[in-house]
Amino acid sequence: MPTPVEASSVQVNLGERSYEIRIVSGALSELPTLLPNWLDRSVYRAGNSRTAHIVTDRNVRSHANIVREGLCATGWTCGITELEPGEKTKSVANLSALWDDLIAMKADRRTVVIAVGGGVMGDLAGFAAASFVRGLPFVQVPTTLLADVDSSVGGKTGINHPAAKNMLGAFHQPIGVLIDTSVLDTLPAREFSAGMAEVVKYGVILDADFFTFLEQRADAINQRDAGIMRQIIARSCRLKADVVEKDEYERTGLRAVLNYGHTFAHAFEALAGYGELLHGEAVSIGMIYASRLAERMNLIEAEVTRRQDDLLRAFKLPTRLPDGWAHSDDAILDRMKLDKKTVGGKLRFVLPKRLGHVEVVSDVPEATVREVFDDLRK
Ligand SMILES: NC(=O)c1ccc[n+]([C@@H]2O[C@H](COP(=O)([O-])OP(=O)(O)OC[C@H]3O[C@@H](n4cnc5c(N)ncnc54)[C@H](O)[C@@H]3O)[C@@H](O)[C@H]2O)c1
Ligand SMILES: [Zn+2]
After folding, report:
1. Is the CATH code 2.40.50.90 the one for domain 189-319+326-375?
2. Counting atoms of ligand 1 from 1, which one is nearest the CA of 58?
């Protein structure tokens, strides 16, 4: 099996906000070599103070320590804030605590904020970087597969309002992202699978050959083979970057294709109670619902759904609602009508037309969605 050993790099082209996603295996300590380059090429190039602040969570402290030691050994002054793991950490209270830490270390506009962790750390630290003195240079060192392929690309940062997820935030592109596949070795199996749901999504929405590649290499992927992981992470980042480059601020509607499976998923997650179903698990189930809906709308053959179902299950993902699911179809529909993609109460979905291509379909009859619920009931 051909496994490239080289590190690879994905360039996100956004004018003066362009940045590199560097993908390595066992080379977290490369960061001090990359950082001066990234700063030089960024809008922050005027001042290089060699001061950084790491934001991390307890579960990934050992990875953060490698980054910190590398920086300290090369003359950087480097603070660290360690937070509780989990979605609840994306709060106003923790954002405020980060501002306090930055004030205490006398951070100025040249201080680099470095998130070491999953999407929670990236979103929170990114928003702290976006808001502190109107913008500090920000670096991501993602440690979950979901953060590797999704939250580290695109510049969305933010926190939750007690009443609504991701309600407060800003677009703030990083100056660089360092992805090290070896940190995935400590990632729990369920979190790994959840990240794979987003990887499969990229195949369905944008790249049929990539989907086939995932089918052929599922075993090596499940073994977290470093070479294969670098390949699929790089391809996923490239596919997301292509979309983000054309719709950086989510204004043209193009970025909506990334939400395949998500209208269903957001409703499932909210009803299950956040944390019961991981986001990637909800997306996996949601993609099957969306695909079945596309079948019902005569957009695709059943084969397209079957291949997704098989592949998601190969990555140990659920493709049906869990046993004991207690919520009515009406409750799911009500939730979906609250979704961002609903206009005037009408149901809109991102649906496949074939593997590798999706379109936004408006005016989906509610009765057809109800048929899908019946089709996929256990
Ligand atoms: N900004 C974006 O574009 C974007 C995109 C998708 C998701 N998100 C956000 O990302 C968040 C979800 O991210 P996530 O799934 O990475 O969750 P997470 O950051 O909560 O990480 C999941 C769990 O895994 C642990 N963990 C992380 N890396 C580990 C490692 N290498 N070894 C052992 N444990 C590890 C964490 O401590 C946590 O308990 C959500 O808040 C979501 O809103 C943002
Ligand atoms: Zn998602």
Report:
1. no
2. 37
For the sheet containing 77-83, what is the strand order? 8-12, 19-24, 176-180, 138-142, 112-117, 51-57, 77-83
Nearest to 369 by CA among 255, 263, 256: 263
Contact 148, 137 (CB under 8 A): no
Give yes or no for residue 123 CB within 6 A of ligand 1: yes
Residue 266 bears catalytic tag: yes
Burial 232-254 (b: 16+ CB within 10 A, else e): bbbbbbbbbbebbbebbeeeeee
Burial class (CB in 10 A: 0-12, 13-18, 19+), 33: exposed
* Residue 250 annotated in active site: yes
pLDDT digits (tens, 9 = 90+) for 76-107: 999 999 999 999 999 999 999 999 999 999 99
The pLDDT of residue 5 is above 60:
no
The rounded Cα 18 to chain-centroid distance in angstroms is 18
CA dihedral 60, 233, 354, 372 (to 10 degrees): -10
pLDDT tens, residue by residue, 226-235 = 999 999 999 9
Q: How far apart are CA 305 and CA 287, in angstroms?
A: 9
pTM of the model: 0.96
Domain ranges of the chain: 8-186, 189-319+326-375
**CB neighbour list of residue 182: distance below 8 Å, 6 or more residues apart:** 25, 26, 28, 226
CATH architecture of 8-186: 3-Layer(aba) Sandwich (3.40)
Cβ of 158 closer than 6 Å to ligand 1, yes or no, is: no
Quick check: CB of 59 below 6 Å from ligand 1?
yes
* Residue whose C-alpha is closest to residue 225's, from 5, 7, 29: 5
How far apart CA 227 and CA 146 sit, in angstroms, is 18
208 alpha carbon to ligand 1 midpoint, in Å? 27
Whole-angstrom Cα distance, residue 154 to residue 17? 11
List the catalytic residue out of 16, 106, 134, 251.
134
**Comparing 8-186 with 189-319+326-375, is the CATH topology the same?**
no
Of 262, 296, 341, 348, the active-site residue reads 262
